[in-house]
Structures are given as structure tokens and as C-alpha cells.
Write a sequence for this structure.
């Protein structure tokens, strides 16, 4: 039986949203401790990553990231407690949606002829590579 893939975005207000791209970026920042490294890891430009983080800064009254100062390797970026809560809440909701979809679509999923998720539902790159380069 095919397992449905759920992708969603939460719109809190106009120009205030969170989806798989921003959450993935926050997770990459958490893993690397660096916005530039997170952008490289996800195959996106630093500018795109900075704009996504800046949009989160504008969307919430609490910061999701803060700059970490100096040290042996220099500065970096870390998630705040609020940023961690945002990621955890999004991933928990994603898990609940997946479980609900599996239950509700059980009678339908068995009729799917292809055994992989449709092209639109597969994880897409967060940034487009410039084909002219």
C-alpha cells in the first residue's frame, strides 16, 4: 500500500508563515551552528537563507535564531528556545497529519497504481540551481 506524503504550510497572518522549507532551514542551522553552512547543506544561496530567517524574524514577536559570538571557530547562529519550540511543534503536527492521513486514506491508498509518492509530493530542493551557471 502506498504511504501518502503530507506537505503543508501554516499561515499565521499575511506574510507570516512556516512550511517545510523554513523548518528544514532551522534544522540545518541547529545541526551546523551556521547560517552559511546551513545554506550550503541545503543547496541554497546564503541570501535566500538569510531572507527566510529574516521573514521568521518579522513573523514572530520572539526571535527564532540568535547570533552566537566569537570563540575558536568564530561566530555562528543558534536556535532560540522559541525556535526549538517552533520546529518541534511543526514536526509534531506533521507526524499527526501523517498518521491521520494513513488512517483516513487506508481504503483509497490500496488503489494507487504507482508505488512512489507523486512528483509534486516528493521533497523538492529548497532552492533552484541557476541553469545558466
Amino acid at each position: 500500500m502506498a504511504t501518502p506524503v503530507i506537505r503543508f504550510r501554516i499561515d499565521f497572518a499575511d506574510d507570516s508563515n512556516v512550511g517545510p522549507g523554513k523548518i528544514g532551514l532551522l534544522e540545518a542551522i541547529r545541526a551546523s551552528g551556521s547560517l552559511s553552512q546551513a545554506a550550503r547543506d541545503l543547496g541554497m544561496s546564503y541570501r535566500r537563507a538569510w531572507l527566510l530567517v529574516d521573514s521568521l524574524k518579522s513573523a514572530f514577536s520572539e526571535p527564532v535564531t540568535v547570533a552566537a559570538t566569537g570563540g575558536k571557530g568564530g561566530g555562528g547562529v543558534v536556535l532560540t528556545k522559541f525556535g526549538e519550540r517552533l520546529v518541534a511543534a511543526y514536526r509534531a503536527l506533521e507526524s499527526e497529519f501523517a498518521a491521520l492521513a494513513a488512517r483516513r486514506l487506508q481504503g483509497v491508498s490500496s488503489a494507487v497504481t504507482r508505488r512512489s509518492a507523486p512528483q509534486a509530493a516528493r521533497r523538492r530542493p529548497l532552492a533552484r540551481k541557476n541553469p545558466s551557471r
In short: Helices lie at 20-32, 35-42, 46-59, 81-104, 106-109. The chain has a mean pLDDT of 85.
